Structures are given as structure tokens and as C-alpha cells.
């Protein structure tokens, strides 16, 4: 056998060997992500949860800020029930199944409307907690309906569900703040004409006496979305576990208690930072 032929055969064997190893690795990865998300989390000893917005890592000197949504707190509670530490990653509802199949998350929690396309491609397990946009303003405002937000400064917060929608639908000038406390503070000081956040949070906030002068509201008109776990349709084991969790949270009204706690924190954050009087 010539040296050239032997060299060619050796190269061919190496090539086929590498291709076989790659194919085997791919099959193993597919098998790993085709099982139960809860089992994979247990094996990894960490639950990776996809949510709509991941808070920036806290660094020394930063002001503590309560986030716009409670989904982060909910997945942390889920981790406690599973006795697993939780890592969060940003995942949009429409990308939930793809993210889970790719091994980027074990479960996704997101706000989902009843007519959202994700219902056709995934198992959606709703929680007893709905959200929709609501605006609050000074009680002497001349803004009486959503259309009158055109050209007006409207404050929102990073990670909120409604960033971009007020400008698109009503021609509002959106001012995106770091967190709800910053958005609401801007309304109190006159830097914004209105603040738009989830109605669940704002309805709780305007019950507080110190918010009486800022309790004018534009009520909910958009369809509500419900927080829901999103899973591949094939993962029946995880679906059963999360259905039990959703039922328990509904019975105990756990999401409502989280909102009430968050509102108290947000109101206190505004109080600490307001170093100028309310706009008169």
C-alpha cells in the first residue's frame, strides 16, 4: 500500500470518527433536553427560570429598587419549594419553548394573553394573577382619556410590559426610568404627566393616603394578560408539578401578597428619594 493511500485512509478514519462523536454529542444533548425540566434542574442542582426582565446585579452604592414585576419573586419562591437555588435569564414568551429545548431554561414564567400564539405551541399553565396597563396622574390633570396622552410625557420603568406601546398607540413621549419608584417620583415632581404600570400595583398604591393627590387614573382598556408557566407540551411531569404550585398560590393568594409587599417598598423608596416638594 502506498504511503499516499495510507495517509488518505488514516485521514478518512479520523474524519468519520470526529463526525460520529459530534453526532453522538448532539444526540446526548437532545436526549438531555427532551426529559423533565424538573428532573434536569434537580440533576444540575439549580433551577434556571426564564422571565421577561432580569434585574441588573446589585453593586455597592446603587440605590435599592423594587422591580416592576413580581415574576422574579415568584420563581425564587418556586426554587424554595423545590429546594433549589434559582438563576434567572431573560426569555420572551414566544421564545419560551425554543429556550427550554436549547437548554437555556428549565421553565419560563411570563405574562400571556389568552389569544397569544404561544398557546398553540406550548403548555401554558396560568396563575391566578392578571395584569394590564393603567395610568395614574395628579388629580387636577387635564388628561381624561388615553388618547390625550399624545405629546405628553409618560413615565415607565425598565422591564415593564408597556414600554413602547404608549408611543405606538397614542403618540406619548415615553420616559423610561430604572424602576417604578423612579417613574412615580417623576410624576410627583412634575417631570412626567403620567406613570403607566400594571394595574395591580397602581390600584394598591393609590390606596395609600400620601398618594391621594396623585390618584387620578386612566382605567384598564387593553386586554389583560395572565402570568403563566410555559413549558413544552411533552413535559407532562413538570406541568403536573407546576399546576399544583399554581393551585397552591391561588388558594393562598400568594401573588397578591407579593404585590402588596412590593407596593409598600416602592412607596418607601419614593419617600426616601423625594428631596423636593410635590409639583403644585
Automatic annotation (TrEMBL):
Residues 46-266 form the Solute-binding protein family 3/N-terminal domain. Residues 1-34 form the signal peptide. InterPro entries: Solute-binding_3/MltF_N. The keyword Aminoacyl-tRNA synthetase does not apply. It comes from the Bacteria. SUPFAM superfamilies: Periplasmic binding protein-like II (SSF53850). Keywords: Signal. SMART domains: PBPb. This is Transporter substrate-binding domain-containing protein.
Amino acid at each position: 500500500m502506498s504511503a499516499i493511500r495510507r495517509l488518505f485512509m488514516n485521514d478518512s478514519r479520523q474524519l468519520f470518527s470526529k463526525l460520529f462523536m459530534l453526532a453522538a454529542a448532539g444526540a446526548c444533548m437532545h436526549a438531555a433536553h427532551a426529559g423533565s425540566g424538573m428532573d434536569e434542574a434537580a440533576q444540575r442542582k439549580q433551577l434556571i427560570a426564564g422571565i421577561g426582565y432580569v434585574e441588573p446585579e446589585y453593586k455597592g452604592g446603587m440605590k435599592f429598587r423594587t422591580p416592576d414585576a413580581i415574576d422574579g419573586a415568584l420563581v425564587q419562591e418556586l426554587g424554595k419549594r423545590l429546594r433549589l437555588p434559582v438563576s434567572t435569564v431573560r426569555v420572551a414568551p414566544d421564545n419560551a419553548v425554543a429556550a427550554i429545548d436549547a437548554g437555556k431554561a428549565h421553565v419560563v414564567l411570563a405574562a400571556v394573553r389568552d389569544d397569544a400564539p404561544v398557546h398553540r405551541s406550548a403548555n401554558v399553565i396560568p396563575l391566578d394573577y392578571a395584569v394590564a396597563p393603567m395610568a395614574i396622574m395628579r388629580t387636577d390633570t387635564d388628561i381624561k382619556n388615553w388618547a390625550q396622552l399624545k405629546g405628553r410625557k409618560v413615565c415607565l420603568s425598565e422591564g415593564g410590559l408597556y414600554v413602547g406601546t404608549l408611543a405606538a398607540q397614542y403618540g406619548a413621549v415615553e420616559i423610561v426610568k430604572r424602576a417604578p419608584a423612579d417613574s412615580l417620583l417623576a410624576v410627583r415632581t412634575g417631570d412626567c404627566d403620567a406613570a403607566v404600570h400594571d394595574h395591580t400595583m397602581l390600584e394598591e398604591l393609590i390606596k395609600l393616603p400620601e398618594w391621594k393627590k396623585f390618584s387620578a387614573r386612566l382605567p384598564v382598556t387593553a386586554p389583560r394578560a395572565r402570568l403563566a408557566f410555559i413549558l413544552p407540551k411533552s413535559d407532562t411531569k413538570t406541568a403536573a408539578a407546576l399546576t399544583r404550585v399554581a393551585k397552591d398560590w391561588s388558594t393562598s393568594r400568594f401573588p397578591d401578597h407579593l404585590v402588596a409587599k412590593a407596593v409598600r417598598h416602592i412607596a418607601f423608596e419614593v419617600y426616601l428619594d423625594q428631596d423636593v416638594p410635590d409639583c403644585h
